C-alpha cells in the first residue's frame, strides 16, 4: 500500500546540530507520511527516520552554535539501527513549521493508549474520579482523551504546570504525567500514564510547547506586593472576597490593584466573582513562596 504524504515542504536542515555543522545549513525537502520522515538535501544526503524510532521532539530551541543561522525550527531525535540517538534540525517559515509540528505530534501520538484519572484534583481537592483507559488524539493546541465514558480535552494553552512521577493512576509504579491546567477558573490536576515511556516523553514535549511560551511571558510581568497578595487571595478563595480587607481597608487601592491585574491579563470576571487566567495561575504557582500572607 502506497504511503500518503501528510507533510511536504522545502526548508533547511542540519544533522546532529549539537555537534556543530560545517559551513552553511543545507537546503532540503522534508516529506512525512504516518510511518516515516524523510529529509533530502540538495546533494546525495538523505535522512530517513521511522516515526516508531522518534524519542524526542524539540520546538524552537536552536543550539547556540546555530542561533544566527536558523529561525523557526523543529528538532527530531531518533534511535538508529546501532541504538544510538541522532538528531535532525529542520527549519521553515513560521506558518509551515507550526503546521508541521502539529502534524508530527499527531502522527507520533494519535491512538496512544493510556490510563487516565481526570480530574484527580479540582481546586486542590482530591476527587473520586475513576481510573479509565483512554486513547489519545492530538488537535491544534489540544490533547483529547477518548474513553468508554465521558471524553475530555486538555487545552495546552491552559496548562500551568506539569511533572513526571513514577506513580500511575492505578497505584502501580509506572511513568506518569501530572498535568495541572486551568478549568473554568479552577486548577484541575489530571494524571496520564501512556503505554510507554517514549510516548510519555513525546506527550510531555507537546505540552511543553505552549507551557514554555507561557513561562517566558509570565517571567516578564512585574508585580507589586499588593498585586501578589490579591492574586493569592483570589486563588485561595475563588474570588468571592472583600479586597479591602486584603489591602488594609483601602477601597481605592483595591480598585486600582484589581484593574491593574485585569490589564496585565492575570484575572478575569466570572459570574461568581473574579478568577485567575492561565497566566495568573502560573504566576501564583511560580511565585507563591514570594508572598507574605
TrEMBL record:
InterPro entries: CheF1/F2, WH_DNA-bd_sf. GO terms for biological process: chemotaxis. The keyword Lipid biosynthesis does not apply. The keyword Ribosomal protein does not apply. It comes from the Archaea. Keywords: Chemotaxis. Interacts with chemotaxis (Che) proteins as well as flagella accessory (Fla) proteins. PANTHER family: TAXIS PROTEIN. This is Taxis protein CheF. The gene is cheF2.
Amino acid at each position: 500500500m502506497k504511503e500518503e504524504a501528510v507533510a511536504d515542504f522545502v526548508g533547511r536542515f542540519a544533522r546532529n546540530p549539537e555537534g556543530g555543522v560545517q559551513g552553511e545549513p543545507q537546503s532540503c525537502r522534508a516529506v512525512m507520511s504516518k510511518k516515516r520522515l524523510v529529509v533530502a538535501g540538495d546533494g546525495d544526503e538523505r535522512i530517513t527516520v521511522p516515526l516508531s524510532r522518534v524519542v524526542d521532539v524539540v520546538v524552537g530551541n536552536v543550539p547556540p552554535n546555530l542561533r544566527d543561522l536558523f529561525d523557526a525550527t523543529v528538532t527530531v531525535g531518533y534511535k538508529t539501527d546501532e541504538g544510538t540517538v541522532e538528531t535532525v534540525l529542520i527549519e521553515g517559515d513560521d506558518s509551515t513549521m507550526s503546521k508541521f509540528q502539529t502534524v508530527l505530534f499527531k502522527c507520533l501520538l494519535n491512538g496512544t493508549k493510556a490510563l487516565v484519572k481526570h480530574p484527580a484534583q479540582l481546586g486542590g481537592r482530591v476527587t473520586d474520579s475513576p481510573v479509565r483507559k483512554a486513547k489519545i488524539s492530538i488537535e491544534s493546541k489540544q490533547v483529547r482523551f477518548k474513553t468508554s465514558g465521558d471524553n475530555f480535552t486538555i487545552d495546552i494553552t491552559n496548562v500551568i504546570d506539569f511533572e513526571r512521577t513514577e506513580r500511575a493512576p492505578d497505584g502501580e509504579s509506572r511513568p506518569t504525567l501530572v498535568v495541572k491546567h486551568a478549568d473554568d477558573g479552577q486548577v484541575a490536576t489530571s494524571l496520564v500514564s501512556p503505554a510507554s515511556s517514549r510516548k510519555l516523553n513525546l506527550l510531555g514535549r507537546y505540552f511543553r510547547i505552549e507551557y514554555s511560551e507561557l513561562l517566558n511571558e509570565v517571567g516578564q510581568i512585574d508585580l507589586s506586593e499588593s498585586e501578589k497578595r490579591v492574586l493569592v487571595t483570589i486563588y485561595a478563595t475563588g474570588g468571592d472576597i472583600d479586597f479591602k480587607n486584603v489591602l488594609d481597608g483601602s477601597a481605592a487601592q483595591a480598585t486600582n490593584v484589581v484593574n491593574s491585574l485585569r490589564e496585565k491579563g492575570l484575572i478575569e470576571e466570572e459570574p461568581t466573582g473574579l478568577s485567575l487566567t492561565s497566566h495568573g495561575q502560573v504566576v501564583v504557582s511560580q511565585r507563591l513562596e514570594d508572598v507574605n500572607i
